[in-house]
Design brief:
alpha+beta, GMP Synthetase, Chain A, domain 3
Length: about 100
């Protein structure tokens, strides 16, 4: 069982890593844009989170989601991840694709 403090350290490390994921249309990272929300961890170190693209028709939602997944994979202590895309016109289709990747 992971302690609350350990989960806070993991969240800090994840957010720090995600500052490297830049939205090419704005030049701003996904953390400052608040595109990653509702971060939670289970007791095994798996991260569960929501990705909300900057608009429902965001043309780079797919590459951004993939960049987010790849960045999180690099964080030590993360045992897995579950991403849910919300407020995007093709969220259902993208969520199905991402389930096969993570």
């Amino acid at each position: 069982m992971r302690s609350k403090m350990y989960k806070q350290e993991l969240e800090r490390a994840v957010l720090e890593k995600l500052t490297e994921v830049i939205d090419p249309e704005t030049g701003v990272d996904v953390v400052k844009m608040r595109l990653i929300q509702d971060i939670q961890f289970d007791d095994t170190g798996k991260i569960i989170y929501v990705f909300r693209p900057s608009s429902p028709l965001c043309p780079i939602a797919v590459p951004l989601a993939l960049a987010i997944i790849d960045a999180i994979k690099e964080v030590p202590g993360i045992s897995g991840q579950a991403i849910t895309v919300k407020d995007y016109v093709q969220a259902d289709q993208l969520n199905e694709i991402l389930k096969t990747i993570v």
